[in-house]
Amino acid sequence: MGQLLHALHDRGEIAIVGRRSGQRLWDLAERWYPETERVPLREADRRLAAIRFRAAGVRRERDGWHAHLDAEDGPVPDRAVLLSPFDRLIADRDRAEALFGFRYRLEMYVPPAKREYGYYVLPLLVGDRVVGRAEPRLDRTAGTLELLGAWGDTSRLDEALDGLAAWLRARRV
Q1: Would you say 164 and 144 are in contact if contact means Cβ atoms under 8 Å apart?
Q2: Cβ-count burial of 122 within 10 angstroms (0-12 exposed, 13-18 middle, 19+ buried)?
Q3: Are 129 and 100 in contact (CB under 8 A)?
Q4: Which residues are 137's β-sheet partners?
Q5: What is the rounded average pLDDT of the residues 114-138?
Q6: Residue 9 CB coordination number (10 Å)
Q7: Are 108 and 120 in contact (CB under 8 A)?
Q8: In terms of C-beta density within 10 A (0-12 exposed, 13-18 middle, 19 or more buried), how is residue 5 classed?
Q9: Rounded to an integer, what is the distance from CA 158 to the centroid of its chain?
Q10: What are phi and psi of 172, to 5 degrees?
Q11: How many angstroms separate the CA atoms of 68 and 56, rounded?
Q12: Per residue in 157-167, pLDDT tens?
């Protein structure tokens, strides 16, 4: 039954309209959503690709990388920051690897013996390059941020950790 509901939801036939005791409440989508223009699937895919291209700023085609016409080509701030695993710069792992030559995977679901780096490792961005990675750990009770490990070019890691600690309102140890 659950798979059928999800399939109908994916097709736009039904909608999740609320929750009761943690359970989803379903209804016909036409009762909840306004009437909109319907477009063929190919046109919808084309529109979605255009939106993604604009949002990402670049895309890879057979002959190389292409920048969107609206992409800015200004100087990149010279700063060091640790990126969230969900940052749009690296969220598309294949794109990030192609752009930066930097392979990044979250290893929290990988068995400890098979991890290449660590449980929750963050990419280190310096200027316009992803140069390394670090595994910081926040102890909420003590209000401290410690470094469990670091890999790659970590020459500016302290700058990034100081910024992260300030944002978390934690003391570095």
Answers
A1: no
A2: buried
A3: yes
A4: 146
A5: 96
A6: 15
A7: yes
A8: middle
A9: 23
A10: -80, 140
A11: 8
A12: 999 999 999 99
